[in-house]
Amino acid sequence: MITTKQRAYLRALGNALEPLMQIGKEGLSENSYKAIEGLLEARELIKINVLKNCELSPKEVMQEICTQLNADPVQVIGYKIILFRKSSKKNFKHIELI
Fold first, then answer.
1. Distance CA 53, CA 24 (A)
2. What one-character DSSP code corresponds to residue 24?
3. Residue 18 CB-density burial (10 A; 0-12 exposed, 13-18 middle, 19+ buried)
4. Phi-psi category of 44—alpha, beta or left, where left has phi over 0 and alpha has psi -120 to 50?
5. What is the pLDDT of residues 8-43, one digit of tens each?
6. CATH assignment at residue 8
7. Which of 36, 61, 69, 82: disulfide with 74, CB 3.0–4.6 Å?
8. How many domains does the chain have?
């Protein structure tokens, strides 16, 4: 679990990110979870765009992903969500949380 200060720091980093993935009318499938898992391992902090034709709201999508992949929610703004999970890779430049 991340603290409020850590979340604020991650929000600041996440503002500059471009969305790496889109979730549309198909919603969250096994392939979506696998892709998000790979992105979190590779980058730790990711931004996802939830399309307007998705049956779930962006907050519901964020909750589902965080529950399934043990990620920390950072922010939901409109149809964009930002997620964080520390990578298990060694020899990787991890995001230093204060």
1. 6
2. -
3. exposed
4. left
5. 999 999 999 999 999 999 889 999 999 999 999 999
6. 3.30.110.60
7. 82
8. 1
73 with 58: CB under 8 angstroms? Answer: no
Cβ atoms of 19 and 47 within 8 Å: the answer is yes
Q: 82 by DSSP, 3-state: which?
A: strand
CA angle 43, 49, 53 (to 5 degrees): 150
Q: What span, in angstroms and rounded, lies between the C-alpha atoms of 81 and 50?
A: 8
| Nearest Cα residue to 42 out of 87, 83, 82, 93 | 87
Distance, CA of 95 to CA of 35 (rounded, Å): 20
CA angle 80, 68, 53 (to 5 degrees): 40
Residue 75 domain boundaries: 4-84
